[in-house]
Automatic annotation (TrEMBL):
Taxonomy of the source species: Eukaryota, Metazoa, Chordata, Craniata, Vertebrata
GO biological process: intracellular signal transduction
Keyword Zinc-finger applies: yes
InterPro entries: Znf_Btk_motif
UniProt feature, compositional bias: Polar residues: 111-127
GO molecular function, one term: zinc ion binding
This protein's UniProt keywords: Metal-binding, Zinc, Zinc-finger
Organism name: Micrurus corallinus (Brazilian coral snake)
Disordered, as annotated region: 107-127
Protein name per its UniProtKB record: Uncharacterized protein
Annotated signal peptide: none
Amino acid sequence: LCSYHPGVFRGDKWSCCHLKDKAGLGCDKTRHGVTLREWNDPLDPDLEAQLIFQHLLAIQEVMREKYEELSVLEKNEKHQSEDPENADRPFRLFQILHDLEEMYQKEVSRSTDMAQQNQNHLVELQT
């Protein structure tokens, strides 16, 4: 995070802080390793985790295709320079994303069921 810029590098400077060093430290909003939407906004870890999760879900298929493509190339070359423990990390990420998505769907379903039950209890109380 210390080198993160929320903007883009256009021409010869960053759009967020106008620094000219492309590889330098991040702008003031991130210099201390914390991303902030505005100067005075507190960091919300739940929101940040949700944003990261949504981003990973959005690019999951692209990552999976690239992983499968590289796996096929590696098998064809019969080249195993990578540590076997590290080789399964992308697959593990896909499993974690799948598990998180399942838990999310169960929670949505549970919340919907609870809302329906509350609605039924309200109708019973009114009659």
